[in-house]
């Protein structure tokens, strides 16, 4: 007969699925970085709905990323940084302003505890509440937004929030310094004219994919490093900056993007910058192929964590 003291399940069951198996935590106290799922999308895309499932998919594919990187970090950098996974923000995607408020408050508590919040979208709109949270803790915040789109479009007054205006709001609300912020990797078609001039009117620096390759990665990275210096930096990485050949499962794919190697090399070139918050967005599992976009997003996240550990 089983005794009551033998009913504990410790060691018999697994816990919740976390990024690369890091500990699940309800507090980021003493952590160097904390994963935060933001399972939200606006639901306004005409054909690609599903980014709200992105956090789950990235976590599911993350075991394919090993803990040891012989070339750059031949030790357990995640354990050394003390990375935790705080799970997903509790929200309802259709309740946009309520969801944004909850995301902001959750990310703020992580940042205020001294950890770096690393958000998993969701579509790109979640960058706005995450930026708002980071700006509350880190004044004079700058943004490096790596994306095929500016997401700094003119705002429709009747529908002010969507996945194309988050950095418009961030500039208007003075959450970031646009003149010190860059949008890198821009390319492809847009839904309306005048998008690039409008982004520049807001004060942002725009580097198209054509500009990037014409000038060369070394020249662009040198400009970024000079602009950011010791300034607190919010790194927003939209997975559609990659070419659809290596990242098909995104909300708004555009041909002519970075290869996996090129994107990872750009990330590694940011070594030493003062990254205080980050997000990895727009993985849409229902449009992915064998989880390859989510696997690449998990790899991007691992590279970001390496940057944080070495900072």
Q: Describe it for me?
A:
It is globular and about 70 Å long. The chain is α/β, with parallel strands linked by helices and 311 residues long. Helix content is 33%, strand content 14%. The protein has 10 helices and 8 strands. The mean pLDDT is 95. The chain has a single domain, classed as Arginase, Chain A (3-Layer(aba) Sandwich). Strand 4 (142-146), helix 5 and strand 5 (182-186) form a beta-alpha-beta unit.
Secondary structure elements and pairings:
Elements: E1 33-38, H1 54-61, H2 77-81, E2 83-88, H3 96-112, E3 116-121, H4 127-137, E4 142-146, H5 166-172, E5 182-186, H6 195-201, E6 205-208, H7 209-215, H8 217-228, E7 233-238, H9 260-268, E8 275-281, H10 292-310
Parallel strand pairs: 1-2, 1-3, 3-8, 4-5, 4-7, 5-6, 7-8
Helix pairs in contact: 1-10, 3-4, 4-5, 9-10
Give helix % range: 25-40%
Mean pLDDT across the residues is 95
| Strand line-up in the sheet with most strands | 2-1-3-8-7-4-5-6
Q: H/E element string?
A: EHHEHEHEHEHEHHEHEH
Total DSSP E strands: 8
Summarize the main sheet: 8 strands, parallel
Q: Spans with pLDDT under 50 lasting ≥5 residues?
A: none
- How would the global form be characterised? globular
Strand % is: 5-15%
- The CATH architecture term is 3-Layer(aba) Sandwich
């Amino acid at each position: 007969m089983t005794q009551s003291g033998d009913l504990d399940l410790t060691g018999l069951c697994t816990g919740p699925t976390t990024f690369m198996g890091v500990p699940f935590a309800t507090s980021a106290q003493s952590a160097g970085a904390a994963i935060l799922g933001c399972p939200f999308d606006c639901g306004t895309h005409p054909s690609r709905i599903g980014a709200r499932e992105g956090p789950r998919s990235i976590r599911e594919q993350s075991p394919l990323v090993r803990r040891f990187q012989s070339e750059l970090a031949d030790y357990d950098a995640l354990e050394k940084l003390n990375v935790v996974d705080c799970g997903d923000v509790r929200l309802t995607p259709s309740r946009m302003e309520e969801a944004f408020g909850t995301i902001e408050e959750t990310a703020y508590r992580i940042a205020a505890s001294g950890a770096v919040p690393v958000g998993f979208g969701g579509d790109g709109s979640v960058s706005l509440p995450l930026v708002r949270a980071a700006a509350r803790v880190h004044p004079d915040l700058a943004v490096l937004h790596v994306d095929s789109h500016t997401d700094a479009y003119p705002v429709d007054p009747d529908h002010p929030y969507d996945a194309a205006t988050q950095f418009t709001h961030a500039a208007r609300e003075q959450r970031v310094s646009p003149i010190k912020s860059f949008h890198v990797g821009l390319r492809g078609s847009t839904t309306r004219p005048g998008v690039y001039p409008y982004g520049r009117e807001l004060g942002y620096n725009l580097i198209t994919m054509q500009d990037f390759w014409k000038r060369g990665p070394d020249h662009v990275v040198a400009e970024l490093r000079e602009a950011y210096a010791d300034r607190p930096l919010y790194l927003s990485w939209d997975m559609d900056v990659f070419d659809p050949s290596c990242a098909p499962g995104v909300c708004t794919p555009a041909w002519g993007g970075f290869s996996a190697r090129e994107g990872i090399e750009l990330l590694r070139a940011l070594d030493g910058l003062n990254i205080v918050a980050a997000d990895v967005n727009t993985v849409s599992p229902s449009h992915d192929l064998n989880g390859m976009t989510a696997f690449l997003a998990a790899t991007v996240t691992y590279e970001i964590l390496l940057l944080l550990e070495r900072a």
